[in-house]
Design brief:
Chain lengths: 117, 112
């Protein structure tokens, strides 16, 4: 199993550009999520999905869109990049909701470091 | 929504000493509290967790305690070793919830 795969690893965007961060998992996990990591602010939830066709907003959803057309994939779209979106982005998945995942913790990808100039 | 505060933000300890990280949460409905460790340049990984029906849980050199009345939980690392140097995150989620809320992180440095 590859686990959670994120691409690209690094990306530089100009303000106003759009792009999609890819996330795929091969563990048949129902729950998938996107976090951003900023110094001193921990990991903040952007969007999450509890299954194919179902998505919902997290703590900081503005400026981001997601879709979940398959169980395996959960792409994150930046509609019009802003310098405030400079961050490290992590995709994470688990067998079911983190609350239920007593024996199935969140599995994180390796992260995407995004810089917006 | 839930708010999780984590202290201290940085912690430097001598090898062999103990380290304690404390988190407080705001939502009394939260009942699952995992801890994640992130080594430099790597992904966060679960190291220990606790549910609200348990007051303490131990796994070798690490332990977590929970005080539901005060709404705080703590991570204890004993006999620290250089490989314990990392950023540690606490988190909380409520029953039937789907949003895992993380604290701001604690950077632990173990000096040899």
């Amino acid at each position: 199993n590859a686990g959670v795969t994120q691409t690209p690893k690094f990306q530089v965007l100009k303000t106003g550009q759009s792009m999609t961060l890819q996330c795929a998992q091969d563990m048949n996990h129902e729950y998938m999520s996107w976090y951003r990591q900023d110094p001193g602010m921990g990991l903040r939830l952007i969007h999450y999905s509890v299954g194919a066709g179902i998505t919902d907003q997290g703590e900081v959803p503005n400026g981001y869109n997601v879709s979940r057309s398959t169980t395996e994939d959960f792409p994150l779209r930046l509609l019009s990049a802003a310098p405030s979106q400079t961050s490290v982005y992590f995709c994470a998945s688990s067998y079911s909701s983190p609350w239920r995942s007593y024996n199935s913790p969140l599995h994180f990808g390796n992260g995407t470091r995004l810089t917006v100039t | 929504g839930e708010n999780v505060e984590q202290h201290p933000s940085t912690l430097s300890v001598q090898e062999g000493d103990s380290a304690v990280i404390k988190c407080t949460y705001s939502d009394s409905a939260s009942n699952y509290f995992p801890w994640y460790k992130q080594e430099l340049g790597k992904r966060p990984q679960l190291i220990i967790d606790i549910r609200s029906n348990v007051g303490e849980k131990k796994d070798q050199r690490i332990a977590v305690t929970l005080n539901k009345t005060a709404k705080h939980f703590s991570l204890h690392i004993t006999e620290t070793q250089p490989e314990d140097s990392a950023v540690y995150f606490c988190a909380a989620i409520k029953a039937a919830g789907n949003k895992l809320t993380f604290g701001g992180g604690t950077r632990v440095l173990v000096k040899p």
